[in-house]
Amino acid sequence: MQTTAERTVTENRDAFPILGTDYIEFYVGNAKQAAHYYQTAFGFEWVAYKGPETGCTDFCSYVLQQQKIRFVLTSAFRPDHEIAQHVMRHGDGVKTLAIGVEDAREAYKMAIERGAESVFEPRKTDDHDGNVVTAGIRTYGDTIHVLVERSAYGGAFLPGYQPRKSLVAVRSTGLKHVDHCVGNVELGQMNRWVRFYQDVMGFKLLITFDDKDISTEYSALMSKVVANGSGYIKFPINEPAPGKRKSQIEEYVEFYRGAGVQHIAIETDNILQTVDQLRKNGVDFLYVPDSYYDNLTERVGVIEENFDEIRRLNILVDRDEDGYLLQIFTKPVQDRPTVFYEIIQRKGARSFGKGNFKALFEAIEREQALRGNL
Ligand code: FE2
Fold first, then answer.
1. 354 C-alpha vs ligand 1 centroid, how far in Å?
2. Ligand 1: centre distance to CA 265 (Å)
3. How many other C-beta atoms can be found within 10 angstroms of the C-beta atom of residue 295?
4. Of the candidates 194, 197, 205, which has an alpha carbon nearest to the alpha carbon of residue 238?
5. What pLDDT is recorded for position 363?
6. What is the pLDDT of residue 4?
7. Which end of the chain has less neighbouring CB within 10 Å, N or C?
8. Domain limits, the chain
9. What is the overall mean pLDDT for the chain?
10. Was domain 174-371 assigned CATH 2.60.40.730?
11. What pLDDT is stored for residue 361 in this prediction?
């Protein structure tokens, strides 16, 4: 395969200090049942709740946590509610990528000055555990970023949420933190959103993959990765490229009814244990054929993990100039072929598994074909 990926580092600096991913909020059809899935399948703990019992009569939110990852699952009670409308259009999906900042008012002011579109102005909310300042700006599709300043808050999640504990026995699967969040955008829109992250947030363009890097016999896509100065926040943006058949990105955009979050990559320190447990819990993964492992050692060199276990669990391996990484991708986690997860363990490597793109996209296309969408 011809190599055209470029590592591009521009001189941009963050427009405002960013602390990391604060939370990811999903709008879903049934938050109570989704919360059960994330507890029993992915090993998240239930930590906070908002709903009728806490005085919120329009919607309910379940907050789940595993180490540094915080997911919020939200459902509305009325069909005309914005949350219900979002679910009707997009199916279950990511509404909010919340970013922790030192000063939400200042970050919002900077973002707006630099061209961001407002969702809501800075607002301070408080309860007996302190106060939080949040503000919202738009990104691709109906997705938004909420800027969260929580240094003066000691509660379970945000003011108005009550602490909760899981009702089932939760066993952690070793998921640690969000490594990157990938957005799929419509044909021709990738550069617009890359520029948004550069101009509004001061992010750097890290890597460019063109359709020569990411193509199979049937479909192709292009991708650019932007990251903040610390590298804690990485947002790859994909767009479809012309191919013989329908690109996986086109399938996503068709079923999501627009641009949105495609996958969330979560890091673990022990991918063998994590994936073994996730499989036992019923999480289903994309399948790569056994032939992938035929010349793996020649391709990636010496690795510390047990090769037979890697093959048994169907984990992918790739090496770059800094080290290697192990990764695996779930199938979509809702009825539509939209959001899925990547589980990743980095052993020095800072890249995204380019050597696995072909095997991965062929695996996705097998699923597309089964759905009748290739
Ligand atoms: Fe990824």
1. 10
2. 5
3. 9
4. 194
5. 87
6. 46
7. N
8. 18-163, 174-371
9. 93
10. no
11. 84
Tokens 């495609």 appear where? 262
CB atoms within 10 A of CB 94: 25
Q: What sign for the dihedral angle of Cα 50, 51, 56, 60?
A: positive
User: What pLDDT shows up at residue 3?
Assistant: 39
Q: Which CATH class is domain 18-163?
A: alpha beta
pLDDT for residue 1:
34
Give the Å distance between the CA of 77 and the centre of ligand 1. 34
How far, in Å, from the CA of 352 to the mean position of ligand 1? 6
Q: State which amino acid sits at residue 360.
A: L
Rounded distance from Cα 338 to ligand 1 centre (Å): 14
Model confidence pLDDT, tens digit, residues 259-302: 999 999 999 999 999 999 999 999 999 999 999 998 898 889 99
Judged against a pLDDT cut of 90, whether residue 193 lies above it is answered with yes
| pLDDT at position 202 | 94
Domains 18-163 and 174-371 fall in the same CATH topology: yes
- Quote the pLDDT of residue 7: 52
Range of 239-243, 301-305, 360-364 with top mean pLDDT:
301-305
pLDDT in tens, 79-138: 999 999 999 999 999 999 999 999 999 999 999 999 999 999 999 999 999 999 999 999
Please say whether the beta carbons of 192 and 221 come within 8 A.
Answer: no
Question: Distance between CA atoms of 38 and 64, rounded to whole angstroms?
Answer: 8
Beta strand pairing status for 93-101 and 220-227?
unpaired
Helix (H, G, I), strand (E, B) or coil at 360: helix
Instruction: Please report the beta strands in the chain, taking only residues with DSSP state E, as ranges in sequence order.
Output: 6-7, 18-27, 45-50, 59-66, 69-76, 93-101, 118-127, 130-138, 144-149, 162-163, 175-184, 204-209, 220-227, 234-241, 260-268, 316-320, 323-329, 340-347
Q: Side by side, which strands form the sheet with 175-184?
A: 6-7, 204-209, 220-227, 234-241, 175-184, 260-268, 340-347, 323-329, 316-320
Res. 2: pLDDT tops 50: no
**Residue 53 CA to ligand 1 centre (angstroms):** 38
Which amino acid type is present at position 52?
Answer: P
Task: Give distance in angstroms: CA of 31 to centre of ligand 1.
Answer: 25
Torsion over CA: 169, 173, 178, 183 (sign): negative
295 CB-near residues (< 8 Å, 6+ apart): none
Span from the CA of 166 to the centroid of ligand 1 (angstroms): 29
